[in-house]
């Protein structure tokens, strides 16, 4: 097992140098850590992972695996194993042979190969299907064989590129738990790419959020959720997404946030006021997560709230909670509230914001004055 360190790692495609896929990533992954790279399609996740694997050249910057600078080390000598979305199993070989293949190439003794394959099969619960060919397996089993092929190699670092994308929703949840368990069992360094923020949140020790080839934030799941560094991270992490209301900071009547349409006017706490004071008169966006918006007439948090009115557009009872979607003149608002009697869609509804849970973003989208 090993640490992985990226220093200004950059990828430019094409000769003109115009197409920058990865702008320069600084990242230190500790030995045994599970780090997830997450972001929308095309943000540079696979390119970053493939540079770590050695499948793409590095345009600039340095990459270490353990103590070794590996910029110019070929993939097969980097001591990594990669699991892809498409499992690419050899169709004519049995599960055993698929898992043993790389070890045979390395000319390991047959007894050692047998031991490693059977141990990996045991961990992955595929011991009973070692004699089958891939087409005799379910999608989930094939995915495990692909992981098994990586495990038997006992690599320094495991790399995963959206390995669960081909599985149905239920199997995805099950398999992501199994990969987390595998990480605990092996204690191995793992770097995992996904576009799915739920996968990122549930699996990562730390998460690297990427957008347009740039790192937006590197943090633990809870810190990303509670303290997003910018508006992109705030909107990307969490479902339903954080609500944003465009407005500005006003100091006319104490420090307040006032929405552009004037329909939301929120007094700020002393602490928020102190941080937002420098932005008085400037454009600011208010961010509030759906679970921090309440129906004003229903159960509310013990902390202070401020109210506003929105036109209720839809009510979605989920059983354990209710999603309310409302609209003001210039903003939409989703609330996620406990089961209760709520007004019908089409009615105006008073909502209350938990003042302790507000986020603010400046004109460039940077977080300011976060609680
Ligand atoms: P992700 O995995 O986050 O969806 P990628 O890393 O695959 O994104 O791609 C990042 C960007 O680099 C995209 O704009 C993509 O079109 C571009 N890109 C990826 N591979 C190549 C390539 N071989 N040649 C040119 N551009 C590429
Ligand atoms: Mg990709």
Structure in words:
It is a single chain. The chain is an alpha+beta fold and 371 residues long. Helix content is 25%, strand content 33%. It has a six-stranded mixed beta sheet, with helices on both faces. A six-stranded antiparallel beta sheet has the order 13-12-11-14-20-21. A hairpin with a 5-residue loop joins strand 1 and strand 2. Helix 2 packs parallel to helix 4. Magnesium ion binds next to helix 1.
Q: From the structure provided, what is the oligomeric state, counting identical versus distinct chains?
A: single chain
Structural class from helices and strands? alpha+beta
Order of helices and strands: EEEHEEEHHHEHEHEEHHEEEHEEEEEEEE
- Strands of the biggest beta sheet: in what spatial order? 6-7-8-3-9-10
- Enumerate how many helices there are, as a single number: 9
Task: Look at the structure and give the mean pLDDT.
Answer: 94
Shape: elongated
Largest sheet, if any?
A: 6 strands, mixed
Characterize this entry briefly.
This protein is of the alpha+beta class and 371 residues long. The chain has helices at 45-53, 95-105, 110-124, 139-152, 169-186, 197-203, 221-226, 231-236, 270-276; strands at 4-13, 19-29, 34-38, 60-65, 68-69, 80-83, 157-161, 189-194, 206-211, 214-219, 243-250, 256-259, 265-267, 283-288, 293-295, 305-317, 322-327, 332-337, 348-354, 359-361, 367-368.
């Amino acid at each position: 097992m090993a640490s992985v360190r990226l220093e200004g790692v950059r990828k430019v495609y094409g000769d003109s140098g115009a197409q920058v896929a990865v702008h320069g990533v600084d990242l230190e992954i500790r030995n045994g850590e599970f780090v997830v790279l997450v972001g929308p399609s095309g943000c540079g996740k696979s390119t970053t992972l493939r540079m770590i694997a050695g499948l793409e050249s590095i345009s600039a910057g340095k990459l270490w695996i353990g103590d070794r600078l590996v910029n110019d080390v070929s993939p097969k000598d980097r001591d990594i194993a990669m699991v892809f979305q498409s499992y690419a199993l050899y169709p004519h070989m049995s599960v055993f042979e698929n898992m043993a293949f790389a070890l045979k190439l390395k000319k390991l003794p047959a007894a050692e190969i047998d031991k490693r394959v059977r141990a990996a099969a045991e961990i992955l619960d595929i011991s009973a299907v070692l004699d089958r060919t891939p087409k005799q397996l379910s999608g989930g089993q094939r995915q495990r064989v692909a992981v098994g092929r990586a495990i038997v190699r006992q690599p320094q670092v495991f790399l995963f590129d959206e390995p669960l994308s081909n599985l149905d929703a239920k199997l995805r949840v099950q398999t992501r738990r199994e990969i987390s368990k595998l990480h605990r069992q092996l204690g191995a360094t793992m770097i995992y790419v996904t576009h799915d923020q739920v996968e990122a949140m549930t699996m990562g020790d730390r998460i690297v959020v990427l957008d347009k080839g740039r790192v937006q934030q590197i943090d633990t799941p809870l810190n990303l959720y509670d303290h997003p560094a910018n508006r992109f991270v705030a909107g990307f992490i969490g479902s339903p997404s954080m609500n944003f209301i465009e407005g500005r900071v006003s100091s006319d009547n104490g420090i307040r946030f006032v929405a552009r349409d004037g329909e939301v006017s929120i007094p700020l706490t002393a602490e928020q006021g102190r941080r937002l004071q420098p932005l008085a008169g400037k454009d600011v966006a208010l961010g509030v997560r759906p679970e921090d918006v309440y129906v004003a007439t229903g159960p509310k948090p013990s902390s202070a709230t401020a109210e506003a009115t929105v036109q209720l557009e839809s009510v979605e009872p989920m059983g354990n909670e209710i999603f309310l979607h409302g609209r003001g003149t210039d903003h939409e608002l989703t609330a996620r509230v406990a089961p209760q009697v709520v007004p019908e869609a089409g009615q105006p509804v008073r909502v209350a914001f938990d003042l302790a849970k507000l986020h603010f973003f400046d004109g460039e989208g940077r977080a300011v004055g976060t609680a």
